[in-house]
Specification:
GO terms for molecular function: methyltransferase activity; RNA binding. Residues 117-345 form the S-adenosylmethionine-dependent methyltransferase domain. The protein contains eleven helices and 21 strands. The chain has 397 residues and is an alpha/beta fold. The strands form five sheets. Strands 15-14-13-16-19-21-20 form a seven-stranded mixed sheet, with helices on both faces. It is globular.
Length: 397
Amino acid sequence: MKTTSVRVNAEAAEAIRAGQPVIPKDSVRDMSVFGAEGTLLRLEDPTGRYVATGYHGQQNKGAGWVLSRNERETIDREFFSRKIREAADRRNPFFENPDTTAFRVFNGEGDGIGGMTIDHYEGHWMVSWYSEGIYSMRQFVYESLKEMPGVLSVHEKKRFDLKGRYMEQDDFVSGKQPEFPLIVKENGMNFAVDLNDGAMTGIFLDQRDVRKAIRDEYAEGRSVLNTFSYTGAFSVAAALGGASGTVSVDLAKRSLPKTIEQFAVNGIDYEAQDIVVMDVFDYFRYARRKELEFDLVVLDPPSFARSKKRTFSAAKDYANLLEDVLAITAKGGIVVASTNHAGFGMKKFRTFIDKAFQTSGRKYRILKEYRLPEDFRTPRNSPESDYLKVAVIKADS
């Protein structure tokens, strides 16, 4: 593949040499020097010395990703094949665990190729593409997957639509198309997934450790409210953990049949659980009016959301949202507060928690914190890659 030489500023050169995987947009004065998306880049410092090899791919973090810091390394099919094999080898314990059949095989820059991820669902592999640049190299990836043992089928998700919406398409790429829903296991729990049904699959794999903790440590005997519940995976974990009851609340109409499905594949009587299709903010007002209280509340909102009534940004509004939760959390209750916003770290997240409790006049203890599970490998010099922040909080008064 043809490579274009690009000189980046001294600050970017130093950061990339230190391990930063993203090529900053402000590393050059004129973005046109990067060429078309997918162009391989020989990155040089202001003196012309080699820094790294990368590719141009527009995304919210920057202008592309670093692929190698070895000047003699060739970016070709063998490069992609080697990276994917190495990533799969790191996940051997997952491949060998019959109780967990859904996990991440390749986590972007954490495994050496930013802009793409590969997830495993009961032998069916799904590639997610986060820029047009890396998507232009897809044949290297798909040819490499043909060499991998145990790949029953390959699917893809294109997540780089400039309008911010999922690009509707047939996500099937190759292999034997499974029947959906496909039932996968996670720590012995069952979840129904569909790899060919829009942007989502039915479960967020990065919350695996948190669901296990809810089931094994926190749910027994507690009344549980699951907000922004999506397909109710946290509710399933709580019910299997012995919760006295669960309430799942989400604005999307599809959340009702999808949550029923998740309960059903686990042998849980969904009619004994409450599934509410409602704006979560409206539900908080309803719960206060009805004087409802919950012993365990799961709060995992999207980083950014807009409805007809309001706009929510985790960076600006999380503390206020947590205050709403505390108003319906019982004394001694537990809040599982989570965010996947990459724009701030755990330290900042703790300040949101502290502000909410201070305003509510309640004391608290953080019992445990969770970050990304081990299959979501992240590079050391990229804090934004380690985006997940979860705090299990006990509200003492």
